């Protein structure tokens, strides 16, 4: 990490992860500082790339997205053109919430959020029509036990 993160920075980041809509005054009060130093630190952290885009977390189930599938993909294709097509197919699919390239027997794992199994099948049919894959295994999540976007900042030490 190229930017130095101290205890105050960590406290600010914890507050922003918890609720980025807080006012500077609220954050400053929670971290034991005043508004201007907090603003300067936030600006420094943004400039260093520690703080990325601001967004809102939506309740998927409240919006009707009741099914989460973890999709394990094996491929025998590893050429640059295949990878380009595969990455484009994933980026073009809003159902794909996460995609990771893995070490081991499985090449990729996707987290796919859809309304139901029929919607997953449509996603699957579209994906395999766009790119060739060797094997696809879909695992339906029966229950989400924990999901967070918050990083474990207490694990960081002063740099």
Describe this structure in words.
With 159 residues, the chain is α+β, with helices and mostly antiparallel strands. The chain has two domains: 7-55, Winged helix-like DNA-binding domain superfamily/Winged helix DNA-binding domain (Arc Repressor Mutant, subunit A), CATH 1.10.10.10; 67-140, Lrp/AsnC effector binding domain/regulation of amino acid metabolism (RAM) domain (Alpha-Beta Plaits, 2-Layer Sandwich). It has helices at 7-18, 24-31, 35-47, 80-91, 117-130; strands spanning 67-74, 96-101, 108-114, 135-140. Strands 2-3-1-4 form a four-stranded antiparallel beta sheet. A hairpin with a 6-residue loop joins β2 and β3. α2 (24-31) packs across α3 (35-47). The radius of gyration is 20 Å and the shape is elongated. It starts with 6 loop residues before the first helix and ends in a 19-residue tail after the last strand. The mean pLDDT is 94. One of its GO terms (molecular function) is sequence-specific DNA binding. This is ArsR family transcriptional regulator. Keywords: DNA-binding, Transcription, Transcription regulation. It comes from Ruegeria profundi.
């Amino acid at each position: 990490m190229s930017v130095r993160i101290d205890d105050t920075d960590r406290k600010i980041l914890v507050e922003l992860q918890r609720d980025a809509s807080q006012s500077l005054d609220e954050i400053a009060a929670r971290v034991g500082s005043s508004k201007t130093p907090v603003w300067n630190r936030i600006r420094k952290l943004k400039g260093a790339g520690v703080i990325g885009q601001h967004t809102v977390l939506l309740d998927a189930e409240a919006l009707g997205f009741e099914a989460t599938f973890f999709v394990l993909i094996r491929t025998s294709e590893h050429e640059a053109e295949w990878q380009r097509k595969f990455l484009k197919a994933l980026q073009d699919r809003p159902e794909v919430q996460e995609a990771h390239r893995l070490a081991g027997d499985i090449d990729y794992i996707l987290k796919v959020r859809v309304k139901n199994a029929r919607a997953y099948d449509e996603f699957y049919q579209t994906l395999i029509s766009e790119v060739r894959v060797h094997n696809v295994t879909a695992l339906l999540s029966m229950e989400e036990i924990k999901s967070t976007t918050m990083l474990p900042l207490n694990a960081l030490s002063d740099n």
